[in-house]
Amino acid sequence: MERKKPDNHLKGLSVIIALLISITSWIYVVYNYDPMTRVTYQNVPITFIGEDTLADKGYALSDVSTESIYVTLNQKRIESTKIDADDITVVADVSNAVEGKNGISLGIVGPEGTQLVDSEVRTISVTVEQAERVEVGIDVMYLDESVINVEPIATNLTSTKATVIGATSTVKTVEKAVAYIGYSDTAEGAGVYTRNLVAVDSHGNEVQHMVIYPGSVNFSAEHGVVKTVDLVLKTVDNSDDNYERTVDAPDTIAVKGSSSAVESLSRLETKETDISYIYEDSDIELQVDLPEGVYLANTSRGVKMHVKVTEKVEPEEKEEDNG
């Protein structure tokens, strides 16, 4: 009697089923019996809440002992590759802080399924000062520091000025409020954006622990090319008095626009400024005549001319020599 050969298809199916059972069993064991492991995360940022409440009371943070800490979590080994420092929440509530030095307890929470084992500190020190407020302009800038000679062209901003509240010792270093967007955001054309505002100093560095109103702005933005062109200053002095007025202003200015808008541009003129009635040294913001589609670059916004006023000295009459 002839013996039947085993069916290769059935044999292959059996192998596949066995593999699926093995994989399913492994996944079940790993997720349900995976041994716990301890992982330490460095530079976990501290989120400060209640600074707006302090500002309402006329106070602000002037110094904190640290802006970030390390945190150690107990967690399933398989989850370790899925968790990073940004998944851990560290909160310092300063709403009830008083003037002077304060100890603030930290609230530390890891992702679901993890347990807090250790942290660098559980309490930080913050210093509270009297607050002051300054009004600054708002710029829209690219977050990417590597890009040069390009800048977003922002229009239709819901606000062009911001009020910044901070400690007396630090708020005066704030030069402007910035809404950052990515370079790639405008690479393919114009868009509409909502961005939070950040207080920055004259070097472009963020000034921490500032309360900003409004906290965010809406605007339209498109890609712009930055170009430096010659600037012709136009002033008029019709005075007939005993004062001499001299003017000092930049001879170039940076503008931005589409490639076609700025390509042939080589010089611009200011609008005529009457300095006839200026009687003391003054700084006057320049008003530049800009062609359609051309805007002042962020670095040239608010550029000023300096008017120096000196009193004319009449020459002394020589006394007649009767000798």
Total number of helical segments?
4
The largest sheet, given as strand count, sense and whether it forms a barrel, is: 16 strands, mixed
Count of strand segments: 21
Residue-averaged pLDDT, rounded?
89
Say which CATH homologous superfamily of the largest domain is assigned: YbbR-like domain
- General shape: flat
| CATH class division of the largest domain | Mainly Beta
- Label the structural class: mainly beta
Helix coverage percent of residues?
Answer: 10-25%
Overall tally of domains:
3
User: How big is the Rg?
Assistant: 33 Å
**In what range is the share of β-strand residues?**
over 45%
- Elements, N to C (H/E): HEHEEEEEEEEHEEEEEEEHEEEEE
Low-confidence stretches: none
- What is the CATH architecture descriptor of the largest domain? Beta Complex
* Separation, N- and C-terminal Cα atoms: 162 Å
The CATH topology of the largest domain is RNA Polymerase Alpha Subunit, Chain A, domain 2
Structure description:
This protein is mainly β. The chain folds into three domains: 36-129, RNA Polymerase Alpha Subunit, Chain A, domain 2, CATH 2.170.120.30; 131-225, RNA Polymerase Alpha Subunit, Chain A, domain 2 (Beta Complex), CATH 2.170.120; 233-311, RNA Polymerase Alpha Subunit, Chain A, domain 2. Helix content is 12%, strand content 47%. The protein is built from four helices and 21 strands. The strands form three sheets. The chain has a 16-stranded mixed sheet that branches. Strand 4 (89-93) and strand 5 form a beta hairpin. The longest helix is centred in the N-terminal third of the chain and has 26 residues, at 8-33. The N and C termini lie far apart (162 Å). The model has no long low-confidence stretch (mean pLDDT 89).
